[in-house]
Design goal:
It is a single chain. This protein has eight helices and no strands. It is mainly alpha-helical and about 150 residues long. The protein has one domain.
Length: about 150
């Protein structure tokens, strides 16, 4: 039987997984559609992606990034089954990745007035905070080997 605090951590992990899966799937399926939701994308932008030697790799790298986010979201299912064993996964995908990402996204989103970057920065900051809280409240139990 899992403790109440472990159940709270699992809810946080589940939310993180769902957010990662949604962001990754939507962006991978249609990066341009993803941006059109937030910005006005010029009609000739798709030509630039196909023809420009600088924009094309950036576009494809960002699409690969979305696949990584999607896979990380799927991997967040593992701590639901064994929170003690997969605590490291929570540290890497719920703490390390967001803590590296959110300052960059927030800084550039605010300074360049790109609200999509600001929104993603806030999402990653939130993911960091909820996972940090979940790991902190279960630290004592984890050291004792209790789920």
């Amino acid at each position: 039987m899992r403790t109440r605090l472990t159940n709270i951590l699992q809810v946080f992990v589940l939310l993180t997984g769902i957010i990662y899966i949604l962001i990754g799937a939507v962006y991978y399926y249609s990066p341009i559609g993803f941006f059109e939701f937030f910005l006005d994308v010029p009609d000739d932008w798709t030509k630039l992606v196909a023809e420009d030697t600088f924009i094309a790799p950036l576009y494809l790298i960002s699409r690969g990034f979305s696949a990584m986010i999607f896979a990380a979201g799927l991997a967040m299912i593992l701590p639901l089954y064994d929170p003690l064993k997969y605590r490291g996964l929570i540290y890497y995908t719920g703490i390390l990745f967001p803590v590296i990402s959110f300052p960059v996204l927030l800084y550039h989103g605010i300074s360049h007035e790109h609200w999509i970057l600001t929104l993603l920065g806030i999402i990653f900051l939130s993911i960091f905070l909820i996972n940090a809280c979940g790991l902190i409240i279960t630290r004592k139990e984890a050291k004792a080997g209790i789920e």
